[in-house]
Design brief:
CATH architecture of the largest domain: Orthogonal Bundle
Keywords: Membrane, Transmembrane, Transmembrane helix
Protein name: HD domain-containing protein
Number of domains: 3
CATH topology of the largest domain: Hypothetical protein af1432
CATH class of the largest domain: Mainly Alpha
Pfam family, one: 7TMR-HDED
Largest sheet: 2 strands, antiparallel
Shape: rod-shaped
Oligomer: single chain
Distance between the termini: 75 Å
Number of helices: 29
Structural class: mainly alpha
Helix content: 55-70%
Radius of gyration: 49 Å
Length: about 700
């Protein structure tokens, strides 16, 4: 006979992770591949068809903005320093020195004409044509003195005006018009040649101030925003693709990337890194004990559903990404499983959703931070109001992020910011509403009980609790005491206290079918029906309260997790009283079948159901034996714990020795307050005589 091979859960979880990683990788790259709006073209090509905007978009045109800033810079006039009078004085002084030197040469009696010409030509500050030099040497002293004086006057007159480098040629050309008209033309030409070299700018160009003005002009130009609505023509058929058209096509991602394989490789690296991260999280935490294969599969499906919808239908739009309630996934995971996993998967979902988008970083922050704040605000999700307060927190956090990123951004105007803020608020409310639906789907599919279900189930007006209260009031009161005992202990060890309380309240609901067979429902001093019936029948009646409770729980549609409390609170123990009685009545004790006196079980499978077993046994024994002092109470608790431990009832739970010690201490403090000694009040004396009694409130 061939052995049936059993596939290990770990293998199945790993397979789900690998398949999910592959699907997530495809979701990162397929939207760009499947989009039919990508074109193979180059700058300067002629468009072979009309190209329309696939969605509305506003963006800062770097090309037009740069052009406008260049135009603004070119329009800046050079900035000159104020007129410097010292420059004019220096030039006039230099002219006088030259004139004095020429006068000295003219009056030299020992030099001939050639020597005088040669001496004047040695002047560095003045390069006179030889013809002008000869004219100067041939002038009479009176005419030379007149020319000398006129040259100085003309230069002073010119240098009193503001002269800049571009003005020098014009000014030099106007020298003749400034010379006294009494001078003949040939002598006026001499004056012009003497003055002309000494005309220099007296207002200097300031390179620093000009550069500063250019920078200010560039900065004063606001970024130019180009806006397109969905369906607007970007390029017409037959149009040459210029730089402006090319920029718009690139912004829309309509140009097929030359780095196609690099994009695939990048997406693959990201997916691989995330897969390793999830594997490490699974390996180094206790999730493998709380996540069944079914749970892992459901989480993977919902994760991929959120990612796929976003990548294929949401991310290439302007407003829709800010409405998309991606936070619902993290909120649901936090409610059903744990907070740490919700943070990790929310971060991963946010990164992968915004991957490769033009404003991917902004969107990642928008997706992740509000989700984390929503999860923290939601807490244990024990009230409907907590969901909507969490949604409001998500919306407000989203608005804050939009303001933080969009206010400094000149591309988005106030109308756009207001629109995005409204979308963020809608996002939060939608996420909270969707979470209510998802947590119900998760709980029903995985058999996990949520806090809302537990609170609804624990209502005193619940039909099954009303049935217990009417038919088995003693069992009902016993269940409440056990619930208080177990709830306190659950809080001490960090277990689910609400689940423990609700499960404890219902654990004995099956006793309402045969209430009088259980001592807590019997009237004092009344005969016990178990004394009059066969021990086998008595045992089956006692044991049946477990199966009867399961039937009632399913009839009243209690959560599956609560049914576990009903089935496991006695584990696989046996009815000791009936079994002992059967042994006493049997002729041969070996003929007694112990299985007929054994509860169907199973043994407790969780810390919560184990707490119920310990609390149920401890409360019943305490009520029966009424310990007189604290030592007796501690001894009683130790005996109960040892009894269940020795019978291996706690072997399927993950309770530690430290947990058991904390549970004992919690039971002791709770029972010490519940079963303390009471004052016995004296009877009222007849004949209207008042008894001398002490005030019970003082005891």
């Amino acid at each position: 006979m061939e052995r049936k091979q059993i596939i290990r859960p770990g293998f199945l979880k790993g397979l789900i992770l690998i398949v999910s990683a592959i699907l997530a990788f495809l979701m990162l790259i397929l939207p760009e591949i499947l989009r039919q709006s990508s074109y193979q073209m180059q700058l300067g090509d002629v468009a072979s068809q009309d190209i329309l905007a696939p969605y509305s978009l506003s963006f800062e045109s770097e090309l037009l903005t740069d052009r406008a800033r260049k135009d603004a810079a070119n329009a800046v006039e050079p900035i000159f320093l104020p007129t410097d009078p010292s420059i004019g004085r220096r030039q006039v002084e230099q002219l006088r020195e030259v004139l004095y030197f020429i006068t000295t040469v003219r009056l030299d009696p020992f030099a001939n004409l050639e020597q005088k010409i040669s001496d004047i030509q040695t002047l560095d500050a003045l390069a006179l044509p030889e013809e002008i030099i000869i004219r100067i040497l041939q002038l009479s002293d009176s005419r030379w003195n007149a020319i000398e004086a006129e040259s100085t006057i003309v230069l002073e007159q010119i240098m009193r005006n503001t002269l800049r480098e571009p003005d020098i040629p014009t000014t030099q050309g106007n020298i003749l018009s400034l010379i006294d008209f009494s001078f003949p033309q040939d002598q006026a030409d001499i004056v012009m040649e003497l003055v002309k070299p000494f005309i220099v700018p007296n207002s200097i160009l300031s390179a620093d101030l000009t550069e500063t003005a250019i920078k200010e002009a560039r900065q004063s130009v606001e970024p130019i925003v180009r806006s397109f609505v969905s369906g607007e023509t970007l390029v017409r058929l037959g149009q040459i693709i210029g730089e402006i058209e090319w920029e718009a096509l690139q912004r829309y991602g309509l140009i097929q990337s030359n780095n196609y394989w690099q994009d695939i490789f990048g997406a693959g690296i990201l997916t691989l890194l995330i897969t390793i991260l999830i594997s490490l999280y699974h390996k180094n935490t206790l999730v493998e004990k709380t996540f069944s294969v079914k749970a892992v599969l459901l989480v993977a499906v919902v994760f991929l559903l959120f990612l796929g919808i976003a990548r294929f239908f949401v991310m290439h739009r302007t407003i829709v990404p800010y409405i998309y309630p991606i936070a619902a996934f993290g909120l649901t995971f936090s409610i059903i499983f744990n907070f740490e996993g919700a943070l990790l998967l929310s971060l991963i979902l946010g990164i992968m959703t915004a991957y490769g988008m033009p404003n991917g970083f902004d969107l990642t922050i928008f997706f992740v931070i509000p989700t984390i704040m929503g999860v923290l605000t939601l807490g244990k999700a024990r009230r409907i109001g907590a969901f909507f307060f969490s949604g409001l927190t998500i919306g407000v956090a989203g608005i804050a992020i939009i303001l933080g990123y969009r206010l400094p951004d000149t591309v988005t105007d106030m109308v756009g910011i207001a629109t995005l803020s409204a979308a963020a608020l809608i996002n939060g409310i939608a996420a909270a509403s969707l979470t209510l639906l998802l947590q119900y789907i998760f709980s029903q599919t995985l058999g996990i009980t949520t806090s809302l279900q537990l609170l609804d189930t624990s209502r005193p007006d619940h039909p099954l609790l009303q049935l217990m209260l009417r038919n088995a009031p003693g069992s009902y009161q016993h269940s409440l005491q056990v619930a208080n005992l177990a709830e306190q202990a659950a809080e001490a060890i960090g277990a689910n206290s609400l689940l423990v309380r609700v499960g404890s309240i219902y654990h004995d609901c099956g006793k309402s079918s045969n209430p009088h067979f259980f001592i807590e429902n019997q009237i004092q001093n009344e005969s016990n029906p178990h004394d009059e019936i066969d021990p086998y029948l008595s045992a089956q009646t006692i044991i049946s309260h477990v199966t009867d409770g399961e039937i009632l729980a399913r009839k009243y549609r209690l959560p599956v997790r609560i049914i576990d409390f009903i089935k496991e609170h006695h584990g696989t123990m046996h009815t000791h009283y009936q079994y002992t009685k059967a042994l006493q009545e049997a002729e041969n004790p070996n003929d007694v079948d112990k299985s007929l006196f054994t509860y169907p079980g199973p043994r407790p499978q969780s810390r919560e159901t184990a707490l119920l077993m310990l609390a149920d046994g401890t409360e019943a024994r305490t009520r029966a034996e009424r310990p007189k002092d604290e030592d007796e109470l501690k001894s009683l608790i130790d005996i109960v714990f040892m009894f269940y431990t020795q019978n291996n009832q706690l072997d399927d739970t993950n309770l530690t020795l430290k947990d058991l010690q904390l549970i004992k201490e919690s039971f002791f403090h709770t029972l010490k307050g519940s079963y303390h000694p009471r004052v016995k009040y004296p009877a009222i004396i007849k004949n209207n005589e008042t008894a001398n009694t002490s005030n019970p409130e003082k005891t």
